[in-house]
């Protein structure tokens, strides 16, 4: 999966960083050689100094150090004006460092402690991205995909009309397609092995639960194929009719039509009648 849209991701973060950027400028104007000075014990550092140090690390891509700095700020100065923003910046640092479990834990803590914070929408969105970025190929377990969908749906439900909700909605469509793709992969395997009833169950699940995805036409065709293999001609015809009604121009309809009407092998572009895309070779 690609990384999140940077504009959406960094918009609220930029606001958080303005204060820290000012802190950096102030520090440098007071002492331009601050980096060469002896290090002050962290306990004695004011919160704005630690915050500025975390920002510098974040801006240079040292995400591990950035997270440490922001966490340290909250630990040492939990009641400062910087503490709340530091929590969110620590979570963002974890996200950028691909430490998704740590980021999720930090974001859930932020959401619990600050449910009405102006950047709570961003916190929910970033948590959803942490799951979304971990979605793997359709051949593997899709548990994280389910978690991503739940988190994305929460963004859409809680913050309708926002940029976060719009982007989450798009990612939801991709996540649904991912889950449907896994069902199709398993169904093809069963069909290849001659386990037709098991294959039918998988293809039916695609039709019932993921009908708006790109996999629906093939699922209908594979159902037609499986029903014919079991001698259930009536079921095959009904399924092919649904395919013809909803996807009349689909290559899958053409293949189902050939199975039902022509009753003989043909060689369309891509493969044989029963395996037009070469999926079972």
**Oligomeric assembly:** single chain
CATH topology of the largest domain: Serine Threonine Protein Phosphatase 5, Tetratricopeptide repeat
- The total of helices stands at 12
Supply the number of structural domains: 2
Helix-strand pattern: HHHHHHHHHHHH
Q: Helices and strands: which structural class?
A: mainly alpha
- Mean pLDDT, to the nearest integer, reads 80
CATH superfamily placement of the largest domain: Tetratricopeptide repeat domain
CATH architecture of the largest domain: Alpha Horseshoe
Over the alpha carbons, how many angstroms does the gyration radius reach? 27 Å
Report the portion of residues in β strands: under 5%
Instruction: Give the low-confidence spans.
Output: 1-11, 17-38, 263-281
- The total beta strand count reads 0
How would you sum up the global shape?
elongated
Q: Secondary-structure blueprint of this entry?
A:
Blueprint: H1 6-30, H2 47-59, H3 63-76, H4 83-96, H5 100-113, H6 120-132, H7 143-158, H8 163-193, H9 196-209, H10 216-229, H11 233-246, H12 251-262
Helix pairs in contact: 1-2, 2-3, 3-4, 4-5, 5-6, 6-7, 6-8, 7-8, 8-9, 9-10, 10-11, 10-12, 11-12
